[in-house]
Amino acid sequence: MLVGARQATVLAIAHLMLLREVMRGLEMRPRRASTQLLTLFPVAALMEYAWTVYVKERDAYISPTRFFLSLIQGMGLVSKLVFCSNCGSILKPPLFWCEGCRRLEMLTGAQLAKQLEEVLKREREAELKGEGREPVPCEVEMVSGDLATLECGVPLFDEGDAVALVKGGWARPLGVVVTGGEHVLVRLFWGVELKEGDRIRLREAEQLVSYDLQLKLLQRYSEGRLTEGEKQAFQVFFENAIKVGKAERRASSYRILEPGGREGRYELDEYQRRAVERILGLQEGELLLVVGPPGTGKTRVIARAALELAKRGEKVLVASHTNRAVDNVLELLPVEITLRVGRPEKVHEKIRPYMLSYKVRERLGERLKALEEEIKKLREERSRLRKLLKELREERKRRGGPETPGIKKSLEITERKLKEKIEERNKMLREESEKLVGEARIIGSTLVKCGLPPLTSVSFNTVIIDEASQAAVTLALLGMVKAGKWVLVGDHYQLPPVFRTLGEAAENPEALDPLSAFNRLVALVGEGEALWLENHYRSNPEIIRFASEHVYGGKIKPHPSCSGIKLERRAEGYLHRILDPEKPAVFVHVNGRERAEGGSRWNAEEVEVVVTIVNRLLELGILRERVGVIAPYRAQRSHIKEKLGEGVEVNTVDAFQGREKDVIVFSGTATTSRSIAFAENKRRLNVAFTRARKKLIVVANAEAEWRGLMRKFIEYARSKDAYIPWGARGARRPS
Prior knowledge:
InterPro entries: Coronavir_polyprotein_1ab, DNA2/NAM7-like_C, DNA2/NAM7_AAA_11, P-loop_NTPase, SF1_C_Upf1. With about 725 residues, the chain is an alpha/beta fold. The chain has 23 helices and 29 strands.
């Protein structure tokens, strides 16, 4: 076949691009690459013909480069290469990052395992090098089976803490704290050996243990050592074997649960009811994705569904990457059938009765108290005898004299009795803990704690993972491998998991979607297969309406009750326009400029304005804990925090995700095009703006080159007569 001039030109360009990409992918020298690819050129005409036929028959355009790359890969000529599914560029393992599209590739199978392993290893290395809590010196008092009692002197560790053994410049995961205090009881990980009398150093190691658990799970997958149940969960992500549950089953009640599991006055709305019914209808091996935008009642749905499943005889795991999300669900459930494993974020009275340690002590009652009192007295006696023996030995060295076998014998007897009593107590605690875990119908835990004692070998019927968009694939799998039915609740329009070591990829939330459990599955099955919660109950309609229109495609509808959510106090005098309760969402234009500082950015003019606004809010009687300041950059956060002092929370967007405040003041900070691209990322701004319940105040330079969501908010504020230049009447500090 003769190839025309135009087609030949296209083909030549395609071959040159192919040559360049293969060279880049294989890191070839030009001469070697040309030699290896020479065999491809005789079939150029045939390839060009195939491309034209393909385009004509499919009636859909595909670039020559992408077509030729996929064709060659299909022929097995470059089967080891991985191409970007969007632009056709060759991706270099192990991260498979596309330089052209600035994103990670959506992989499967062994390549996905390789990608995840690389990310986790990088994060683990960074965690080891990072500054953490100073190691605590401890002495191994006693080892009994998988339980070790450590004398630490200071009560720094609490129930549920994962701890690591520190030696030199490295840390090795040691175990999980069963009981805290000065004498810490630790359940040791398999393979850990300690000897009585050893002097060791401990540090908190939740993140380190998390990475190790995920890496071990990946290793078992790569070596083919997963159980059948675990394989089923892995197939969802690694083979795209996703079966979305469609069946619905009615609940016994649709009333909203109040703290303690009491039936409330109000019922779930239509979207919440449907989500509960779909969860109840799940069959073995099926998955349900629930999109829960801010304030749509996902906690209510999870609590109601978990209770209904428990009533049907199921054992349910409620998990999340944060303690806070787990606690929010558990406090709505009956304490009689619900158990909290791990360490809650805040041990307040609502959560304390759910805790494993609390229930163990309640069950054992006086028996445990009496035993611990004996242990306490024996420890005191041991300390007294040790001190006395030391003094007598020093005296004998100075003056001479006989040995003191009586005191030494008494010390040996005391230590033997102490060991027996500690072993008795440890056995009692272990047996009662296992009994409570076995009896509980609903267990709440972070995803990390799912893979640790006492849940290591516990199975469930259904696992419900909250905030799943912030959970990495392997982190979600720590929970999913424990059940045969899975519910993932998340919001793919908010921020994905945080990875500190991915450089530019970490700055672009969308680039990390392949690593997010929820976002990955939504991308694979499509938004239409996910179930949406659409009624919003938390924020003033003017605040949430902007996010609904410009982020969620109009899917969120503020409930009529939201209209009454606004500031109760009206500001008289200065800043009255900015703090007007009838303007729930305002934009304050500040003619500032960004400055570089230690790899971050800050804006001095915005710092002054934000501090002035916050101080005025406090003068009006708004509680410090109900006000939040969000900045996209750490440097800006630090400068604002320094000026405001303690009391008002100032943080970055990532730290505020999943939280809420009555008033949010957001400092845009950026004024240059590169910084603006980061600061006004759609998901980042969405998280920042939807934290506010009663008042959202956005402080930024409107004349900067905002092109995306921030520009839309500026126009939105103008349309509501809520665009206020700083220094205008009602928007300046008193002279």
